[in-house]
Amino acid sequence: MNQNMQTNDEFKKSVLEKVRKKAARDVNWPVTVLLILGLSTILFPLYMTIIIAFKQPTEMTNSISGILSLPKSWSFSNFAEAMQVTDFWNSLLNSLLITVVTVVLSIVLHSMLGYVVGRSKAKKKGYKLVYFYIVSGMFVPFAILMMPLVKQTAILQLDNMFGVILLYTVFYMPMNVLLYSGYLTNIPIALEEAAFVDGATTWTTYWKVIFPIMKPMHATVAILTALGTWNDVMTPLVIMSGSKNTLPLAQLSFQTQFGANYNLAFASYLLALLPIILFYLICQKQILSGVVNGAVK
Amino acid sequence: MVSKKKMGRDATYLAITIPIVALFFLFNTLPLIQGVIYSFTNFKGYGDFDWVGLRNYMDLFTDGRVGKSYWFTFRLALVSTVVTNVISLLLAMGLNSKIKFKNTLRGMYFIPNVLGSLVVGYIFSYIFTYIFPAFTKLLGGEGTSILSSTSWAWVAIMIVCAWQAIAMNTIIYISGLQTVPQEVYEAGSIDGVSGWGKFKYLTFPLILPFFSINMVLCMKNFLMVFDQVMAMTKGGPAQSTESISYLIYNNGMSGGQFGFQSANAVLFFVVIVVISVMQMSFTNKREEQL
């Protein structure tokens, strides 16, 4: 009986070994090839954008080959014109300003509130209430805030970039406070207690001890907030109502000016996509882990 | 000494909390309250207005355009959610298997997610208007754009929504699949589980939390669809692709329906809360059962 079980175990072990070896050795080529082919669904729109952006209107015929063939010459004239038409540098600057200031404000304000709430909500009812109050803001769609906010920002003279930044800081607060206070549960409270014993105030303890420790979460918050604000159309559209353009908003505002000149339009689209594509290529690893961290936590 | 320090901490906590919560109240709760108040008026967005009680809410249920926008938005959200999750799950399993160029492929498949959806909408709008019809013409079709069809334009928007969302969901599923220990499959293969059974009994139950994250993310984002509609159809043809957000924006901001669309927005808010709560309690229950 015992002997029998032993051989059974050995058999299992040998099978296991075989399975493991096989798994480690084989590259799954069919799946690799399928995935590479599938990539065309992502690369085709991008290829088409680049090709059309470089072509002249005369090269565009109504056949597919006319649209998708390589341009006769790689001239940057469309880009120069698109930059002029859409006031590219100004839009880029506005987008950068809004995104950078929003990210900085979010990291500073949301981490502070996340810390206070995260450390107090278990002990104090008031802070627990504050936590649920802020986090439940996640359910509020922009559609319901939009119309009153247009009135409100106009009265407060915030119908400008500063207003948009303030609004983003408020809109991303629920998610970011949730992320920060969640991350805080992994940080032992003993660290702060030690600093307190050494005579540090709550304020200096926060900036000297807690803020640096939360660095991984700062990265996640920065990436999620930056991607969201950089690509957002609705908030600047209704709040700034055409007085200032962000990069995506410029595409909307100048759509009529592109008219039927798709080459000009696509040059402009490509210019609008380029900054974020470059940013992604440089920080791919951080972006991927940031996005996953944000979603899973 | 200790109590003095404690007082200092409490004061600091309050000094941090009060201004930030005040800011949140000012730009989130206050406009929300105003929205609810406006929903009981016939405010046009300018000039005088009267209280109309619940009339806006009753009109919502008989207004054809509002009904159409809910039908469009929900059909879009449901179909996109299913399409997105099926494709992302397959893609994630592929990208998590023993393949060459793993990191490069994963990186490339994520690209759609970082691109702005308005510009993506414009690019796809061109594809649907010129490239697809040219192809169908080659295959003997009529060569008309689905964007100009009242019964098919929503599919174009669905495809664009899914194209971007798949990138995000795939990454989340991959991180889910990585939490499944290899031993589970080894044990499974000894017991003779393979193929569909392997997925149904081993993989899926173990990545269920990631499935629920994706469902919630998808539904919420798709229900709020705006940029794609703005870029591709502006609600047309014949208002067949007007999403709820687009209708509120369009008629509320410039169509003189500030009060009525506020009521629509309140209803939309309630719908989103109900769906989110239902989804969460449902997935929580499923997870507990496992």
Helices and strands in order:
The complex is a heterodimer of chains A (297) and B (290).
Chain A: H1 2-25, H2 29-38, H3 40-54, H4 64-68, H5 77-85, H6 88-120, H7 125-135, H8 142-155, H9 161-171, H10 173-184, H11 190-197, H12 202-213, H13 215-231, H14 234-240, H15 247-253, H16 255-258, H17 262-282, H18 284-296
Chain B: H1 2-38, H2 55-62, H3 64-96, H4 102-114, H5 117-138, H6 153-177, H7 182-190, H8 195-206, H9 208-223, H10 227-232, H11 244-254, H12 258-289
Would you write up a description of this structure?
The complex is a heterodimer of chains A (297) and B (290). With 297 residues, chain A is mainly alpha-helical. Chain A has three domains: 1-38; 39-75, no CATH class; 81-296, MetI-like (MetI-like fold). Chain A has 18 helices and no strands. Chain B is mainly α and 290 residues long. In chain B, helix 11 runs antiparallel to helix 12. The longest helix of chain B is centred in the first third of the chain and has 37 residues, at 2-38. In chain B, 41% of the residues are buried.
Assign the CATH architecture of the largest domain in chain A: Orthogonal Bundle
Detail the poorly predicted runs of chain A.
none
Instruction: Tell me the span between the first and last alpha carbons of chain B.
Output: 51 Å
> What share of the residues of chain A lie within helices?
over 70%
- CATH topology value of the largest domain in chain A: MetI-like fold
> CATH class of the largest domain in chain A, please?
Mainly Alpha
CATH topology of chain B: MetI-like fold
Quaternary structure classification: heterodimer
Cα-based radius of gyration of chain A, to the nearest Å: 27 Å
Following the backbone from N to C, one meets helices and strands of chain A in this order, namely: HHHHHHHHHHHHHHHHHH
